[in-house]
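Handout, page 2. Input:
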Amino acid sequence: MGKKWFILIAMGIALGCGGQAEEKVAAIGVVEDLGGVKVTVPGGWSSEPPSNNMRKAQYRLPGDGGDAELVVTHFGAGGAGGVEANIARWRGQFKDSDGGSVKTRSVSGMNVTVLDISGSFVENATGAFYFKLVGPKITVTKWQPSFDQFINSITVSGGKA
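Output:
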């Protein structure tokens, strides 16, 4: 606590999921099938084994202010309380925040909601996929265009949860 953190979250992509990332630095344009969706991982991101069984994929994004982390989770249909419940929960994880902004758009025919929020981050112990990028503001800002490309690359795959 005490550090200023920044978060970009895309959520609301409803499908099934599975698969795990291997630890490696991704080359530009590497496509990973997360079971239900495919994503194109930007160059410079490190793909890591998920640190717990709730995570479907995990990426490290290096930066001068410290590394940021992108986590992909999937809880099945109706799992994790839905988009609004997650926005409220994630807003509650930030102190000194104005609540951020929420935008929605369509990617490959799927609804995507993005919460863009900054403040002091407080960590707590076939439905939507959640893509949560958290890190120092300078690092997340550096990678924001890559994050947008990553989200825009999402397509439906034949993989299963």
